Amino acid sequence: MAIWHAKPSLEELNQSAADCMPGYIGLQITEIGDDYLVGTLPVDHRTRQPFGILHGGASVVLAETLGSIAANLVVDTAKFYCVGQEINANHLRPVGEGKVTGTAKPVHIGRSSQVWEIRITDPHGKLNCISRITMAVVPHGR
Q1: How many CB atoms lie within 10 A of CB 102?
Q2: Pairing mode, if any, of strands 28-32 and 80-91?
Q3: What are the Thioesterase domain coordinates in residue numbering (predicted)?
Q4: In whole angstroms, what is the distance from residue 72 CA to residue 95 CA?
């Protein structure tokens, strides 16, 4: 059974992020499962650090984008919105080229907070970053 309050199309999700940071660095939402969200990020001139590998900040952008979108899809956005409170990331191995894939899954979905885990893998499916984001669920009008 799906956890989503709303399930927009992939095209709608990607269009909403096209004119801000995720769109500028080539991030794409690629799959919405019953209880997970998947996106990809190219490892290229926009996302590499000076040593030629994926910038840790780019991995965090992927993680935060997936966690934020997922959190907001779980709530009734006519009544609530979700904002990030804390994010952490452990960078486990470098990625020099290709695309990385992030998968966000819920750890906790509560009335006032949510916690999401985002696992980012390299083009060979090896884990290169694991992240966790805590989201505040805020009623409109506050």
Answers
A1: 26
A2: unpaired
A3: 51-127
A4: 29
C-alpha torsion sign, points 73, 16, 99, 68: negative
Rounded Cα distance, 73 and 136, in Å: 14
Helix residue ranges, H only, the chain: 10-16, 21-24, 56-74
Q: Tens digit of pLDDT for each residue in 40-67?
A: 999 999 999 999 999 999 999 999 999 9
Q: What is the distance between the alpha carbons of residues 73 and 5, in angstroms, rounded to a whole number?
A: 6
Distance CA 70, CA 55 (A): 23
In this structure, which amino acid lies at residue 65?
Answer: T
Q: Domains (ranges, CATH) in the chain? A: 10-139 (3.10.129.10)
Cα 96 from Cα 49, distance rounded (Å): 10
What the block records as the tokens of 33 is 């499962």
- Ranges of the chain with pLDDT below 50: none
Positions annotated as catalytic residues are 64
Q: What are the Cα distances from residue 95, in Å, to 6, 43, 67, 121, 128?
A: 34, 7, 21, 9, 7
**What is each CA distance from 18 to 14, 24, 40, 61, 77, in whole angstroms?**
6, 7, 14, 14, 20
